[in-house]
Each structure stands twice: as C-alpha cells, then as structure tokens.
Specification:
Elements (H helix, E strand, L loop, with lengths): L3 H12 L6 H12 L14 E6 L3 E3 L13 H4 L14 H4 L4 E5 L7 E7 L4 E9 L2 E9 L4 E7 L8 E7 L3 E7 L7 E8 L6 E7 L5 E6 L3 E6 L5 E4 L6 E2 L7 E4 L2 E3 L9 H4 L5 E4 L5 E3 L7 E5 L3 E6 L2 E6 L6 E3 L13 E5 L5 E5 L5 E3 L13 E3 L8 E5 L4 E8 L2 H9 L9 E8 L4 E6 L8
Antiparallel strand pairs: 1-2, 1-30, 3-31, 4-5, 5-6, 6-7, 8-9, 9-10, 10-11, 12-13, 13-14, 14-15, 16-17, 17-18, 18-19, 20-21, 21-22, 22-23, 24-25, 25-26, 27-28, 28-31, 29-30
Protein name: WD40 repeat domain-containing protein
Keywords: Membrane, Transmembrane, Transmembrane helix
Length: 449
C-alpha cells in the first residue's frame, strides 16, 4: 500500500515533468474515503485530480500505458489485445441486455450503494442514511424499475459500520466492525434471501475479527481471517470452529477456497504471490494451478486466471491453456463474474474484458468536454462482485487553482524539486449531474458460446 511519502514523491516527480503512477492516484482517493482496507474495493471514483503548475501543468490522471515488450510471447503469440478505451465501444453497446439504470437515492433520501447481482434483473443494494452507514438491504429490479426492502439493518451504536455483504443460496450475510477504536471485534448477521428479520449470529474478537472474506451456507456463517484458515459459526448460535483441512487457505467464494488471501494488501508479499491451489470445501476437490513463467499475482476463478508480467496483464484457463496477453493492466487482479477482468484503457475510462469471448467494453461516464472521466465503481460484496456502475449522464469538470501553500512548496524543495514562489496547486472537481446511475450486471451477460 502506498503512503503519504509516495504522494510527496509523486508530486516532486510531477513537478519535474514525470508521470504519476495511476495506482497512487486511486490510492490517495481511497485513503480519503475508506476506513478499512477492505473498503478499498468499493467505489473508485475520480472526484478530484491534483495538479502542480510550474509554468505548465503536471496532471495526475488515472490509466496505465502497457509496455510494448511481450514477456510471454511464446505462449501468447497471436492472442488478441484489449484496445484503448477511446477505441472500445461502451459497455451498453457490447452487452445491451446487461446494462440498465437505477436511482442514486431511495425515496427517503438514503443513498444506494450496489453490492452485487442476485440474478439477471435483480441488484442487491445497501441504502445509506449517511456516508457508509448502511441502514437497509434492498433489491432493485431493473426490469420493473422497482425496489423492495429485504431487511432493516441494526444501527450497531457509535462507530459501528456494516462491512461486506455476501449473498448465499438461502441467506444474505454481512458483518460489522468498529474500525476507529482500534478494537479487534466483529459481529455477523444473516437475513433470509427472500427478506425478513435479521438474525445476529454472534461475535468474535482478536485475530478472528480481522475478516478477509465471508460466505454463508444453509446453516453456517463462514469466513477467513486475514491470518488464514476458514472458520464457521452456526446460524442458530454457537462458538466459532475451524473447518478441517483449511490451514494455509483463504475463502474465495463459498464453497471455494484458495492458497492466497482475498485482500492482497494484507501483506505486501501477497500482492505478487501466485495462486497455486483451488479447493472445493464441500466435496474436497483440489485443483492445482501452474502459472506461466514470469507471471506474478495470479488469481483464478473456477475457469479463468489473471496475472501480470512486467506491467502487462496475462490471462489463461485454470488448466494452463489459452494463455493471452492483455494490453490493459488490471490494478486489482480480480476476476468478476467468473470470466471478466477490469483493465485500464485510456486515461479516461477503464475497460471490462470478457476472457471467454474476447469482447470488451468501456465503463464509466466521460465528461462532455473530453477533459476527464467521471466516477465509476463496483459492488461491495465480499467475494468478487458482478456489478459495475457509473453516472448515467456525461459528467462535468471544474478546475480550481490556488497558490501553493508555502509549507507544501518547501516540502517539495526539500525532496529535490524546484517549484517557483508562484507555483499553484490545482484541483479538478468532477460533477455528476442527474438522479440515476447506469449499471452493468454481469449475471445478465449471455453465456460464452
């Protein structure tokens, strides 16, 4: 994870004409808006862009330029590349049956935050009374354009925040923490999938409360702590117990577990570690995965894998077949909906790439003046989400410049930059007009083939 020192370094480099890493741009926004590491996976909206003006403008932008070298040329020769988002059609053109709109807010003003898809037309949402304070679970039907309340979520007291939500076959589960008091504590909740009164399953403390991912079966809450292993607790109440044979494993999406954590930022070593195992905890099936030479950060669904070599993303099937190189770079290395990868395209919009069909579509809302891209996000389910969303209208940008504070100028000087006394700091604000967001539901994309 990048630190504030990295920001200073980036600004110093920008002042000297160098580019700024895209992941730093996103990371700075995340630190403003997220209380826990897990929340880095939610909304990645470019609400502001910092620039240092030294006679010209060094602008911090998103996006990634893939290197021209092909480190897996022998395996990926002739494989199709993901083109730049400026040249890719929009997602609504590629998958028209899977793109719809939903309101930004409920009738009472609560803000909707997508979680994941429950089916081709149903989107699971949380409704927030204030920032990240989830008050309800709702389901929005994109066909009927109507929502229904599944459950009212217990407030939980001062400093309590609902964290990731995860649907199962019979129940929908979530957990809550008090992230700002330094206490290792979490509680678990479930509600029947069709809706009803939430049930508080129980609570845990210590390392078991540092949740990586959760899941839910017909009779248990299941989760992995950051330290590894898979644990369960009866929905009817009881003590947590470790699932036999899960040493060195982390929950992926029930019933699957793998030998790398779901959150690669738990420890720096995990970000580049390759997944080598996929285990079905219901029937004991174990699948061994062998990455191509030089690949790092390999992550796999039950069918596809995604990794990187020297700044280039590489995909393959779990059995090692169909290796291909992607021009865009996947910052998170996640596979969504079993077969989709989010990769950077242009400096404005990311691209969602279908590993099974080769189709690609740009997501996000561009600005009408072409100066920037708007906010976009993906659902906040515990396992990989199936929904991406963005403003339904073109966004607008507004740039404001002010004299650089003397303390900041001196800090840059101390880092080796040479900003003049008249240097300015500029902020580009993104305005997202309208009352609706557009949403891509991967559960509604037709099957491959």
């Amino acid at each position: 994870m990048r630190t504030e020192n990295d920001l200073v370094e980036a600004l110093r480099n920008a002042a000297n004409g160098a580019s700024v890493p895209a992941d730093l741009d996103r990371g700075v926004a995340d630190r403003r808006r997220r209380r826990t590491r897990r929340r880095h996976r939610s909304l990645l909206a470019a609400t502001g862009v910092v620039a240092v003006v030294l006679g010209g403008t060094a602008v911090v932008r998103g996006g990634h330029v893939a290197r021209s070298a092909d480190p897996v040329a022998s395996a990926a020769a002739g494989a199709p590349d993901v083109a730049d988002a400026d040249k890719e059609p929009r997602a609504r053109e590629v998958w028209p049956e899977a793109v719809a709109t939903f309101p930004k807010k409920a009738a009472d003003g609560f803000k909707y935050r997508p979680v994941t898809a429950l089916g081709p037309t149903e989107i699971l949402l949380t409704a927030e009374g204030s920032f990240e304070k989830a008050g309800r679970l709702e389901v929005y039907d994109t066909r009927t354009r109507a929502s229904r309340v599944l459950a009212t979520m217990t407030p939980g007291g001062k400093g309590y925040y609902v964290q990731d939500v995860e649907p199962g076959r019979d129940y929908i589960a979530w957990y809550g923490t008090t992230p700002n008091n330094g206490r290792k504590w979490a509680d678990f909740w479930v509600v029947p999938r069709q809706g009803g009164e939430p049930v508080r399953v129980g609570e845990v403390t210590g390392d078991l409360a540092l949740v990586d991912r959760i899941g839910v079966t017909g009779d248990h809450i299941v989760w992995s702590p950051q330290s590894g292993g898979v644990y369960r607790m009866p929905i009817t109440g009881g003590e947590p117990e470790k699932v036999e044979g899960t040493d060195g494993l982390w929950l992926d999406s029930w019933p699957w577990a793998r030998d790398v954590p779901g959150d690669p930022f738990i420890d720096d070593k995990w970000r580049n570690a390759n997944q080598a195992l996929l285990v079905d905890l219901e029937n004991g099936t174990r699948r061994t995965i062998t990455p191509p030479p030089g690949v790092t950060g390999l992550r796999c669904s039950t069918e596809w894998c995604l990794g990187a070599v020297d700044g280039t993303s590489v995909s393959m099937r779990v059995d090692g077949a169909d290796v291909r190189r992607l021009t865009g770079f996947s910052h998170m290395g996640e596979i969504y909906g079993g077969r989709f990868a989010e990769v950077s395209g242009s400096v404005l919009l990311p691209v969602l790439y279908d590993l099974a069909t080769g189709k690609a579509g740009a997501i996000g809302a561009a600005s009408a003046d072409g100066r920037g891209g708007g906010g976009w996000g993906h659902g906040v389910s515990s396992s990989s989400t199936q929904v991406f969303y963005w403003n339904a209208q073109d966004v607008e940008t507004k740039e404001t410049c002010r004299a650089m504070p003397e303390r900041q100028r001196k800090a840059l000087v101390a880092e080796g930059a040479a900003p003049s006394p008249g240097a300015k700091t500029c902020t580009t604000e993104t305005v997202e007009p309208g009352d609706e967001n557009e949403i891509l539901n991967l559960a509604a994309v037709p099957p491959a083939g």
